[in-house]
Structures are given as C-alpha cells and as structure tokens.
Amino acid sequence: MELFVAVISGYLVGSVSFGIILTKLLRGVDIRQYGSGNTGMTNVMRTIGKGPAMLVLLGDALKGAVSVGIGLSLGSTVYAVIAGLAAMAGHTYPLFHGFRGGRGVATGFGVILTLTPDVTLIALSIFLLTVFLSRYVSLGSILAALSVPLTMTILQKPLPILLFGVLGAGFVIYRHKANIKRLVNGTEYKVGEK
C-alpha cells in the first residue's frame, strides 16, 4: 500500500504545473505555445521574464521536496526516492495539463535538496559555473545531473539515494536530447537569447 501511495502522490504533486498556471495567471498565455514549448523555468524566463521564472523554479522544486516528505512519512527512504521519481515523471508528463510538461530539472533539484543537501550544493555549483561560463542553461543542467550520481558515489550515499541519483540524472539527460543535438550543432539558445 505504501508503494502505491508513494507513486500516486508523487505523480499527482508533480503534475501541478507552476509554469502553465503562473503564465496563464500573469500573462494569459499557455507557455507550451512559446519558445521551447516546455513548462519549466528557462522557457518562462525567455517568454515572460525573470520574476515569474523564479516563482516557477521555486514551485517546481517544492514539488520534489513535498514528494520526498510524503515518501519519508510513509516510513522509508525507498518510498521517498520512489515518490521523488514519480514527481519528476508527473512534472514531465502532467496528468492535469495534457501530459506536456518540463524536463524535471527543478523538481529533481527539490528531491536531492531534501534527500542530500551536500550533493545539491555541489550540483548547484556546477550548474551555476557552467551557465556563467557558457551561457547555456541546458549544458549546466546536463553537467549538474551527471555530477549527482558521481558525487553520491564518492560521498558513499545509501543505495536508495544513489539509485535516485542514477535514475534521476538519466531521466534529466534523456529529456535534454534535443538540447544536446543543438549544442553539438551550435544552435542551442544561450541565456539572454529568445
């Protein structure tokens, strides 16, 4: 029963799309019709500005943290990891918004922040440094995701948390496959470009 609750609650929490809700409330637009078509912070920032993008980032990260909290309340880190992965799936394929969402980066950030803040600090540092040097948010997200399971291994995190690191990173990188192609072709958007 706990497994079912972890999966369903994580997925439903993840399915609340702050990108869609906030852009409709603030500008009356469906963010999926603009830019990359994704509902996450980067597309919101390019489309309607930094302030709303920060709210989307906060809301999306909160979904990951809340899902982990639900999983932990069920009595196990395993349930927390499962709920966190389900939240990432819900964010990416949201039930309430036609199964078209974001890439799961901020929601995954909320999960690792709650499970293992030290790993989060390292991943965030890699993300910020990469974006600062390259101006590519997608590259920062990919490199930060790659750093998570590596850092978890070095810091000898428990197996369920390491499993989240591997699966979560793989999910984020897979969701960036179009960005990877654009990075290779030199056509990826940089911060500040629309």
Automatic annotation (TrEMBL):
Pfam families: G3P_acyltransf. Its EC number is 2.3.1.275. The keyword Cell membrane applies. It is found in: Cell membrane. Pathway: Lipid metabolism; phospholipid metabolism. The chain crosses the membrane at residues 6-26, 78-96, 108-134, 154-174. GO terms for cellular component: plasma membrane. InterPro entries: G3P_acylTferase_PlsY. Keywords: Acyltransferase, Cell membrane, Lipid biosynthesis, Lipid metabolism, Membrane, Phospholipid biosynthesis, Phospholipid metabolism, Transferase, Transmembrane, Transmembrane helix. Belongs to the PlsY family. Probably interacts with PlsX. Catalyzes the transfer of an acyl group from acyl-phosphate (acyl-PO(4)) to glycerol-3-phosphate (G3P) to form lysophosphatidic acid (LPA). This enzyme utilizes acyl-phosphate as fatty acyl donor, but not acyl-CoA or acyl-ACP. This is Glycerol-3-phosphate acyltransferase. It comes from Thermanaerosceptrum fracticalcis. The lineage of its organism: Bacteria, Bacillati, Bacillota, Clostridia, Eubacteriales.
